[in-house]
Amino acid sequence: MVLAQRKVRSKELAEAIGITESNLSLLKSGKVKGVRFATLAAICRYLDCVPGDILAYQPSDDDLRAEE
Question: Which ranges carry the HTH cro/C1-type domain (predicted)?
Answer without folding.
Answer: 11-54
